[in-house]
């Protein structure tokens, strides 16, 4: 455990380094913070903090910067729950009102909003389709032989699939199929449709070929090839950070962000953790050990649906990012519900 003075000095170093991106010296701390001790005492305490692994010494400067261990101590000491400013709350409300017209825009705009507020990369992992409940299926005529199947779930996902008309069927037959399926599946989880329900649909349709076609249409509509959708925002913000002015340093991170399944796995690993912060070398992937990831899961009607995250340098505004994700965690489900009615 660190004594109170060391804690205050470590907190001041973190705050100053986050703000300036410059190594912090004892005289700077004495001038900017009311620590009640001389620069010489601060310098000795900083040397102790370095020896204990909480600070690192940059050889080109007399100042020090926080280590991953130092950031961890600082983050663990942040008081919760933190508050989102009234200004940011207004920005969030106005953002959705101005930019979101359809449910399928909510998650992309959420990613953009988070990146704008935090000035870092944002990641939003949208709900698995199979976790959601069926809401309705409808068909839109395309031509004499094809139609578009449109599936809507209670989590707000819209899936569109072009389908061939069953042999001998006409568009009114598809409409009848949709009516039977909607009556039978409304509110049921897509990952666990009971066999008895499928049998009821078979009996209601009364035609084996039409039933087979209906099931094929339903499963094709569900088979998106991707069980979850990943939305990114603000990758250009990373290039603006002083740590990543060296293109070779950021190149690996940008390449990693293109590996969708890898990013999904990173986010999935924190599901159920509430608000989680992974700092520097705590990240298992070597390419982001210069970064920190803050994640939060969001819910709809009490059920775990997805994950929102901020990815940035270890020198990030943890308190601001954590407060924003905490707020989004509490409100994103309600935002989604607003758009699905």
What does this structure look like?
It is a single chain. With 341 residues, the protein is of the alpha+beta class. The chain has three domains: 4-76, Winged helix-like DNA-binding domain superfamily/Winged helix DNA-binding domain (Arc Repressor Mutant, subunit A, Orthogonal Bundle); 86-127 and 228-340, GAF domain (Beta-Lactamase, 2-Layer Sandwich), CATH 3.30.450.40; 130-222, Enolase-like, N-terminal domain (Enolase-like, domain 1). The protein has 13 helices and ten strands. The chain has helices spanning 4-20, 26-32, 39-51, 68-76, 86-99, 106-118, 171-185, 195-205, 208-222, 235-240, 247-257, 260-268, 318-340, and strands at 55-57, 64-66, 121-125, 134-141, 146-153, 158-164, 230-233, 276-279, 291-300, 303-313. β9 and β10 form a beta hairpin. α1 packs across α3 and α2 crosses α3 (39-51). The two termini are 51 Å apart.
